[in-house]
């Protein structure tokens, strides 16, 4: 009995000892994990560390945020810190977390290299470092990760070749590989003996990969998603590979250098190889210069197919009617090919079609009236073909139609009035056809047209309909080169959003209405080659927005001065008007009248006597006011000072009248989309800008004033304009803001006089950085999240020392998302859905598709702004009016043909004091800005960087060029010894 007791005692002791040893063992391991994590934390820059506030000794490691332990709570198995705004480098000590199965640091701003030691994390099944700023090569050590199922390194700045080991490590369990959107080069290293049998997603788009699609990929028979778009891959379309992929759903091969079979003449084998993929949904082969006909078998592809992109190739022949068996197709893009024959009416049996683009081919015959059956159609682009006949009446059924582009065909007949039933039409372009008859009032009354109406170069006759005045959202109207007659209705002045109006080359008579000069955003106005008479209204000259004007070849008469909007015009704008005289160079002088001489003499006499007196009395006053201005309270971006002044909550209408000289035209300094801006001086000498909201325009966006005030009051940032006070009466609403001495960025980029932009690259980078900081604050840090919605150079103001301030939140939207910080009642403005957002050229493409305003939309506009600054071209340039856009134009030069753009930018913006050999620095900076601009303007909103990333990146660039020692280093390297 005793023996047994002793034995039990012994075994119990053994048990205790064993347990204690195990415990210490465990805590040693967890200790190691803790040390590795703390070392990781120390690699994060301090102002981002607050995210990891709970990573302290008082809290168990397993309870730290982003950490998951195993069941025994003795090892860290998951580290997930995605989207936490972390900045810094990735510590190699993470490799000590030897039980880690999941490492997710995606959507942060990590810089530097990927530590090769991560290859020692043998238990890892999921590694995601996507959407950071990582650079350097992909370490070959990652090939040691035999258990890896999910690998995502997309959207970084990785370069160099893909290591062989990555796809070839013996027993690959990889199901998901995403290396897209980097700068990776070389071939895809998938050797024949390597098999990725489990692979379902293979994403390598937007890199610099060359060579063929490796045949060994055909072993990946579970592949569902293959995206190799935008590389430099060559060879025949990979028929033999895709044939082995019955589960394929998405195949993207656009923008490479693939060819079709039999010396680029036969597409049939490739389409045949896809016939058995019964889940197939999207096919993209655009921009490859593929030759051949569209094979009959295209109709035998899966009926699940939703999108086909074959544009920008060399595909010839006709469109096979058999394609209509693809009943689920929503998008068909065959534009910019060599297609001929007629448009098969069967096409319209695909009842789900939303976007049909057949432009820039040689299609002939009539437009099938069956298009009226495609009730979901939103975009129909048949431009640049050889289509004849008239526009079918059946378009009236297309209630979803937003864009109808039929320009550059041989269409005849009249414009069917029934088109007026397309109540969602935003763009109607029928220009360059042979359309005759009158402009039906049903069309001219289309209130929905908010982008443009182009009917130019046709045979339209009759008068301009009065109903044109209903188009109060349209930005551009072009009716030039027709046979229109009658007078210009003064109601045109109601088209308040108009920026472009071209009526040239018609038979219009009578005088120009005064109201046209009052259009608040009109920048271009052409009435040349008509029969107009009378004087040119003074309102045109007084317009602050008009830049391009053409009055030539009419019968205008009277006196024209070279002031205001006319100061930049030459005689070319006035040719062929024998009755005009005045001070434009080349124009005959007007006959002077006598009383002017008298007045002149009186003035001289007066000034002789009065000036000395004025000097004695007034000069000290001016001196004093200058002195006070220097110490005025609203000088620079000090937040506290701004709020101090809000203790005067409102200002009276009379005070504003006094400050602005009764809102005199001479104090008008600009116009935003929804109001005019006047400069003024308050009694205490504060220089102010008074933004008077145009009530008529503001009606369109109810709550705009309230919204802007709310936003301005809640935001505090050195790069956002601060509100001084407001004036609000039922019939008058104005915001009072500090006057920015240097005006808007727009004025500096496009000065009306002189050729040079004036700002150097250091200043421009600093301005971009300021704007990015201000926007990042709006998106990520302000008390209410704000989507600006209308970011463009005229909404960026510059103060004394060229600090940029973002302004004009008139149509900004507050974004109440599910984050509790934002769940504040006063911040929901959902009623703004569907309102015109942004300005042409800067609008994100998804807005056209009815997506709501988003921070990604702002990122897009910012990207356009960057490219605009670099190229010196407005995104609204005529060059970009149709089809292509500024960012697409730049992208088409990227990366190998950028040199002229870069050189031109260096010439324009390199600081004059800098010797030429330092140009290398500027080239680097400009290239980085272009890349950033292209990243921001990516088509897919979700792949654009966040404003915070952008701000961070430009901040880095700003630091780089403002660091003199770096420039010095660069200089030494460059100088020939
Ligand atoms: C840590 O988490 C565990 C389980 O989630 C919980 O029971 C424990 O109270 C937490 N400890 C601390 C100090 O938060
Ligand atoms: C069309 O697509 C829907 C949804 O993907 C699917 O349910 C349906 O079966 C498809 N139609 C045909 C004829 O394949
Ligand atoms: C289309 O073009 C081909 C040559 O590419 C030509 O042989 C054929 O006759 C044309 N068809 C029509 C209808 O014009």
UniProtKB/TrEMBL annotation:
PROSITE patterns: LRR, PROTEIN_KINASE_ATP, PROTEIN_KINASE_DOM, PROTEIN_KINASE_ST. It is a single-pass membrane protein; Single-pass type I membrane protein. Gene3D superfamilies: Phosphorylase Kinase, domain 1, Ribonuclease Inhibitor, Transferase(Phosphotransferase) domain 1. ATP binds at residue 691. Residues 1-24 form the signal peptide. GO terms for cellular component: plasma membrane. It is an enzyme of class 2 (transferase). It catalyses: L-seryl-[protein] + ATP = O-phospho-L-seryl-[protein] + ADP + H(+); L-threonyl-[protein] + ATP = O-phospho-L-threonyl-[protein] + ADP + H(+). Its EC number is 2.7.11.1. The chain crosses the membrane at residues 599-622. This is non-specific serine/threonine protein kinase. It comes from Ziziphus jujuba (Chinese jujube).
């Amino acid at each position: 009995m005793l023996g047994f007791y002793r034995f039990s005692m012994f075994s119990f002791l053994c048990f205790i000892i064993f347990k204690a040893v195990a415990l210490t063992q465990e805590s040693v391991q967890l200790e190691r994990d803790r040390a590795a994590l703390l070392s990781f934390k120390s690699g994060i820059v301090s102002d981002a560390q607050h995210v990891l506030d709970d990573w302290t000794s008082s809290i168990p490691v397993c309870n730290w945020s982003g950490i998951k332990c195993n069941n025994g709570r003795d090892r860290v198995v998951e580290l997930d810190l995605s989207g936490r705004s972390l900045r810094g480098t990735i510590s190699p000590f993470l490799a000590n977390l030897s039980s880690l199965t999941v490492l997710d640091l995606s959507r942060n701003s990590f810089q530097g290299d990927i530590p090769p030691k991560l290859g020692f994390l043998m238990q890892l099944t999921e590694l995601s470092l996507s959407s950071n700023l990582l650079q350097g090569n992909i370490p070959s050590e990652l090939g040691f990760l035999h258990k890896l199922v999910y690998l995502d390194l997309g959207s970084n700045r990785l370069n160099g070749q893909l290591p062989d080991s990555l796809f070839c490590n013996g027993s690959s369990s990889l199901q998901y590989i995403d290396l897209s959107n980097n700068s990776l080069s070389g071939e895809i290293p998938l050797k024949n003996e390597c098999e990725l049998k489990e692979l379902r997603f293979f994403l390598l788009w937007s890199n610099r990969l060359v060579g063929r699609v490796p045949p060994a990929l055909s072993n990946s028979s579970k592949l569902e998603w293959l995206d190799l778009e935008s590389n430099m891959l060559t060879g025949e379309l990979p028929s033999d590979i895709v044939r082995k992929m019955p589960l394929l759903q998405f195949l993207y091969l656009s923008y490479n250098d693939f060819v079709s079979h039999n010396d680029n003449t036969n597409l049939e084998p490739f389409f045949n190889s896809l016939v058995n993929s019964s889940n197939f949904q999207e096919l993209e082969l655009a921009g490859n210069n593929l030759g051949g006909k569209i094979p009959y078998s295209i109709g035998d592809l899966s009926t699940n197919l939703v999108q086909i992109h074959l544009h920008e190739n060399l595909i010839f022949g006709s469109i096979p009617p058999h394609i209509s068996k693809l009943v689920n197709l929503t998008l068909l893009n065959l534009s910019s090919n060599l297609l001929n024959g007629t448009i098969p009416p069967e096409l319209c049996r695909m009842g789900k079609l939303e976007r049909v683009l057949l432009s820039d081919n040689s299609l002939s015959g009539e437009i099938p009236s069956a298009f009226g059956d495609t009730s979901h159609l939103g975009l129909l682009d048949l431009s640049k073909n050889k289509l004849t006949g008239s526009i079918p009446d059946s378009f009236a059924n297309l209630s979803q139609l937003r864009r109808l582009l039929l320009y550059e065909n041989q269409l005849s007949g009249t414009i069917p009035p029934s088109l007026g039933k397309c109540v969602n039409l935003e763009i109607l372009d029928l220009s360059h056809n042979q359309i005759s008859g009158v402009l039906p009032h049903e069309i001219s009354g289309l209130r929905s047209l908010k982008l443009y109406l182009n009917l130019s170069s046709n045979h339209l006759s009759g008068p301009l309909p009065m109903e044109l005045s209903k188009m109060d959202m349209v930005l551009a109207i072009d009716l030039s080169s027709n046979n229109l007659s009658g007078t210009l209705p003064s109601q045109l002045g109601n088209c308040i959003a108009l920026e472009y109006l071209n009526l040239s080359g018609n038979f219009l008579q009578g005088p120009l209405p005064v109201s046209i000069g009052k259009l608040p955003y009109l920048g271009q106005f052409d009435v040349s080659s008509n029969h107009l008479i009378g004087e040119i209204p003074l309102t045109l000259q007084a317009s602050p927005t008009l830049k391009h004007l053409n009055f030539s070849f009419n019968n205008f008469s009277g006196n024209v001065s070279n002031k205001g909007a006319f100061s930049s015009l030459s005689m070319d704008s006035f040719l062929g008007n024998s009755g005009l005289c005045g001070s434009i160079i080349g124009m005959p002088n007007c006959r002077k009248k006598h009383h002017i001489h008298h007045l002149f003499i009186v003035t001289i006499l007066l000034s002789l006597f009065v000036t000395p007196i004025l000097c004695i009395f007034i000069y000290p006053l001016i001196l004093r006011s200058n002195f006070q201005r220097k110490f005025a309270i609203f000088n620079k971006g000090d937040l506290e000072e701004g709020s101090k002044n809000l203790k005067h909550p409102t200002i009276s209408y009379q005070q504003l009248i006094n400050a602005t000289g009764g809102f005199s035209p001479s104090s008008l300094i600009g116009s935003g989309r929804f109001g005019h801006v006047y400069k003024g001086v308050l009694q205490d000498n504060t220089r102010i800008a008074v933004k008077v909201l145009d009530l008529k325009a503001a009606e369109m966006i109810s709550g705009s004033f309230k919204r802007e005030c709310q936003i301005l009051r809640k935001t505090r940032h050195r790069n956002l304009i601060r509100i001084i006070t407001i004036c609000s009466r039922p019939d008058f609403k104005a915001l009072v803001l500090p006057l920015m001495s240097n005006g808007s960025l727009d004025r500096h980029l496009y000065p009306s006089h002189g050729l040079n932009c004036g700002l150097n690259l250091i200043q421009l980078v600093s301005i971009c950085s300021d704007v990015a900081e201000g926007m990042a604050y709006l998106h990520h840090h302000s008390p209410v999240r704000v989507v600006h919605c209308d970011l463009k150079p005229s909404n960026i103001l510059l103060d004394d020392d060229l600090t940029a301030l973002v302004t004009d939140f008139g149509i900004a939207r507050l974004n109440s998302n599910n984050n509790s910080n934002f769940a504040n009642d006063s911040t929901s403005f959902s009623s703004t859905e569907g309102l015109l957002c942004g300005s042409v050229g800067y609008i994100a493409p998804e807005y056209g598709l009815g997506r709501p305003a988003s921070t990604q939309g702002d990122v897009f506009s910012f990207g356009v702004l960057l490219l605009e600054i670099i190229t010196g071209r407005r995104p609204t340039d005529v060059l970009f009016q149709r089809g292509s856009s500024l960012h697409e134009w730049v992208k088409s030069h990227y990366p190998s043909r950028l040199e002229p753009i870069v050189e031109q930018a260096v010439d324009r913006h390199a600081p004059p004091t800098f010797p030429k050999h330092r140009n290398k620095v500027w080239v680097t900076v400009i290239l980085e800005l272009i890349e950033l601009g292209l990243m921001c303007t990516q088509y897919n909103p979700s792949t654009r960087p966040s404003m915070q990333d952008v701000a961070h990146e430009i901040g880095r660039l700003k630091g780089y060029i403002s660091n003199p020692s770096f420039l010095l280093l660069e200089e030494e390297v460059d100088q020939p010894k």
